[in-house]
Design goal:
CATH superfamily of the largest domain: HUPs
Largest sheet: 3 strands, parallel
Strand content: 5-15%
Strand order of the largest sheet: 1-2-3
Distance between the termini: 73 Å
Structural class: mainly alpha
Number of domains: 4
Helix content: 40-55%
Shape: elongated
Bound molecules: glutamic acid
Number of strands: 12
Length: 483
């Protein structure tokens, strides 16, 4: 259903750590929602929890969004630079009787919490300062204690909300406590800052993780107290690991930048994350950014948790890697080769040489971080491998020796070094040696690459060049002799 108002959504991360998949999924859904309806996407950094701020986190958040192409139309706003707004609203709530000052010490609150836990009750502020007499208040004030501001929660009744994904949800007010709005350090809590900003920034829709649903009745009550219309809420389903536990590092799902470091492409991440909780239908897996913008809707966001599947992510990245032009693939692979190849390989790598190799690897790589390992034998002067691999096709040392000797003679005499000449030489040789092509080629493959599985043999040999192939075959001959 098309929203009647101008769509204004925000992504409001707290810089308490590096953004993980769940955070970015929230950003992506908000961005898609904004782009689908031609609305605005606003970036707001919720940095009011001074004790949990992580240095550098803001930069990583911005960097991640830029990497994924999730461009914002306004911001980033920083809540730490907007304290006057929260103070003004806290004062208004105090003046109008919706909030009160609380002088309880940390020790008292802690004791109360311990007691409640002992009694198996949920921890909740007991409301003592709500009922202070004017005299006691004055005394406390005079004693120099800096109070916090608490919201006066209605003691009975229910707060309901219509969530665009979850439907109608009701909360008993008596279960909610008089939560803090303004802390004694002068910073607002998440609840206060969040609703003040959503109001001042005219946010029409709040798309956020499911874990915030239980905070929403507090927000609704604040909007009511302030006589502000609340935005519409859409709480996104949880993301679980394959074992159905909440997604965490344990599942290999670390922060989003790690995926970039491993060589996942932004288009993969966008497509993959879009399908964590949203789908076009029950089949379509591959969707471009443009298609996602075109088709995204909250109606197709699921109510049930999404399951993170690393295999699917790898598969999808393989698909997107194969869609790159060979040149683009090579360009993207170079930094990974630079990082991954041993120091003995001469730098800078020749772009021309890399461009010859990469088409052979493009077919089989799932992440760019693999390319150095998949193709190191193209770059190394000498390859290390276990000599017994030369017999892995089931040959004995004698026939392997004979096969390599004859292959060497033939190849040494070769005039041309291209796929059809190599094939024309080596295929009849296998027959001559009374070996299956598979066995014979397998042997040549191990001798020239050190691997039992590598890109197509003749193309590999062409890139390696005649001289290097002959040298490696000669070394293989010596190695077989040791078996
Ligand atoms: N700062 C909160 C977070 O980091 C925002 C929650 C919300 O979107 O309201 O998730």
């Amino acid at each position: 259903m098309k929203p009647k108002t101008l769509v204004r959504v925000r992504f409001a991360p707290s810089p308490t750590g590096y953004p993980h998949l769940g955070n970015i999924r929230t950003a992506l859904f908000s961005w898609l929602f904004a782009r689908h309806y031609g609305g605005r996407f606003i970036l707001r950094i919720e940095d009011t929890d001074v004790t949990r701020k992580v240095k550098g986190a803001v930069d990583v958040i911005l960097d991640s969004l830029r990497w994924l192409g999730l461009d914002w139309d306004e911001g980033p706003y920083f809540q730490s630079q907007r304290l006057h707004h929260y103070h003004e609203i806290a004062n208004r709530l105090l003046k109008e009787g919706f909030a009160y000052l609380c002088y309880c010490s940390r020790e008292r609150l802690e004791m109360m919490r311990q007691e409640q836990m002992k009694q198996k009750q949920p921890p909740k502020y007991d409301g003592r300062c709500r009922y202070l007499t004017q005299r006691v208040k004055e005394q406390l004030e005079a004693s120099g204690i800096v109070p916090v501001v608490r919201f006066k929660m209605p003691l009975e009744g229910e707060t309901t909300l219509h969530d665009l994904i979850r439907g109608d949800v009701a909360f008993k007010n008596s279960a909610l406590d008089d939560f803090v709005l303004l802390k004694s350090d002068g910073y607002p809590t998440y609840h206060l800052a969040n609703i003040v900003d959503d109001h001042l920034m005219a946010i029409s829709h709040v798309l956020r993780a499911d874990e915030w649903l239980s905070s929403t009745p507090r927000h609704i009550l604040l909007y009511q107290a302030l006589n502000w219309p609340p935005p519409q809420f859409a709480h996104l389903p949880m993301i679980l690991g394959p074992d159905r536990a909440k997604l965490s590092k344990r599942h290999g799902a670390t922060n989003i930048i790690d995926y970039r470091e491993q060589g996942y492409l932004p288009q993969t991440m966008i497509n993959f994350l879009a399908l964590l909780g949203w789908s076009l239908d029950d089949r379509t897996e591959l969707l471009s950014r443009e298609e996602l913008i075109k088709y995204f809707s909250l109606e197709r966001v699921s109510k049930t948790a999404a399951i993170f599947n690393n295999r699917k992510l790898e598969w999808m990245n393989g698909v997107y890697l194969r869609q790159l032009s060979p040149k683009e693939f090579a360009q993207r692979a170079i930094p990974f080769l630079d990082r991954g190849l041993p120091a003995s390989v001469k730098r800078p790598l020749s772009e021309n040489y890399v461009c010859q190799i990469m088409p052979l690897l493009q077919e089989r790589s799932k992440i760019l971080a693999e390319v150095s390992q998949l193709g190191d034998f193209f770059f190394l002067e000498e390859i290390e491998y276990d000599a017994s691999l030369l017999l892995s096709g089931g040959l004995d040392a004698r026939s392997a020796t004979q096969a390599i000797e004859i292959a060497l003679q033939k190849l040494e005499a070769a005039k041309a070094w291209d796929v059809s000449s190599l094939e024309g030489m080596l295929r009849p040789l296998a027959a001559e040696l009374e070996l299956s092509a598979g066995k014979f080629f397998g042997l040549v493959r191990v001798a020239t690459t050190g691997r039992t599985a590598a890109p197509p043999l003749f193309q590999t040999m062409i890139v390696l060049g005649k001289e290097r192939c002959l040298k490696r075959l000669a070394i293989a001959l010596q190695r077989v002799a040791t078996l």
